[in-house]
Specification:
Elements lengths: L2 H12 L4 H10 L4 H8 L5 H11 L22 E3 L4 E6 L4 E5 L5 H11 L4 E2 L10 H4 L3 E4 L5 H15 L10 E5 L5 E4 L8 H6 L6 E8 L5 E2 L2 E3 L4 E3 L6 E5 L13 E3 L2 E3 L2 E9 L5
Helix pairs in contact: 2-3, 5-7
């Protein structure tokens, strides 16, 4: 929580605004129980804290391919097998990325590429900055609705088999195409709590939790996805899937999920991405 919001809490506490009212306002703007309670301290009674926790505390579900594994992921870089798929873990207890090698078969990937080519438009970003969108994110995008009906269902079914109940609150699949020199500079996938971006894109739909990204083709050179905290780059290979969580187990956004798509140097790059959401608070 940034200093502006902390100052807002202090100013409104001094004005006599109740702890519960402050709590509910912060929840509405995307902050979570574990952030708010320590900040409000004695302004919430033990009974109020418990009642609010019962209603608003966030539980971040795991994707289906992880099964019932809730262990610490600091053992990274081990290849592990669940009931559905082999996966490899890269990271530490603060943040990790799961790689599912060959998670999608080549026929499905190639069919997706063929369909995506027919519906591309310039990619956009959700935040406004001094950089023009086309300089920050220079790829092209194809929306799920533009894909052929049967293909869209096959892609959705495959993603649901990997993600399980996490998929139930997901956004529509989005496809991206990167030509030579095209990239997506350093960014996070979550919506910043307390911002206009959060109010516009997550206020009614909930915060982004998991990201699932599928490489649809093998890139000749370049186009790596890099996670800055991990100092790890993944080269695009057809059928490989990357999955990561943009929030911690309590639903607090994780800046260590910062990543970027490096420019394609030779060939082209096709990916599909699905962002899953936490349920919106009411």
């Amino acid at each position: 929580m940034n200093s502006t919001w902390k100052r807002w809490v202090l100013e409104n506490t001094l004005k006599g605004v109740s702890g519960k009212e402050l709590y509910l306002t912060l929840i509405k703007h995307g902050f979570v129980h574990e952030q708010i309670v320590p900040l409000l301290g004695a302004n919430l009674s033990a009974q109020q804290t418990q009642q609010l926790a019962n209603k608003y505390r966030v539980s971040v579900p795991l994707p289906a391919f992880l099964g019932d594994d809730k262990s610490d992921d600091s053992h990274c870089s081990n290849i592990r097998t669940s009931e559905t798929v082999d996966y490899e873990t890269f990271g530490d207890s603060d943040f990790c990325v799961y790689k599912l090698t060959g998670g999608f078969d080549s026929d499905l990937c190639e069919a997706a590429v063929s369909s995506i080519k027919k519906g591309l438009r310039p990619s956009t970003i959700t935040t406004v900055s001094s950089d023009k969108p086309q300089q920050y994110r220079t790829s092209s995008t194809c929306d799920f609705a533009s894909l052929e009906a049967g293909l869209a269902e096959r892609l959705s079914d495959k993603l649901k088999s990997l993600m399980g109940k996490v998929h139930d609150t997901s956004e529509p699949i989005q496809a991206q195409h990167y030509d030579i020199d095209q990239e997506f500079k350093q960014h996070t996938d979550y919506f910043e709590p307390g911002s206009s971006e959060y109010s516009k894109f997550a206020g009614r739909r909930g915060q982004r939790s998991w990201t699932c990204m599928v490489y649809l083709n093998t890139v000749e050179r370049g186009g790596d996805t890099e996670f800055l905290h991990l100092k790890k780059r993944f080269s695009p290979k057809q059928g490989d899937v990357l999955v990561w969580c943009n929030v911690d187990k309590n639903g607090i956004v994780n800046p260590k999920s910062l990543h970027q798509a490096h420019p394609v140097e030779a060939g082209e790059k096709y990916v599909i991405t699905q962002w899953c959401r936490l349920p919106a608070t009411k």
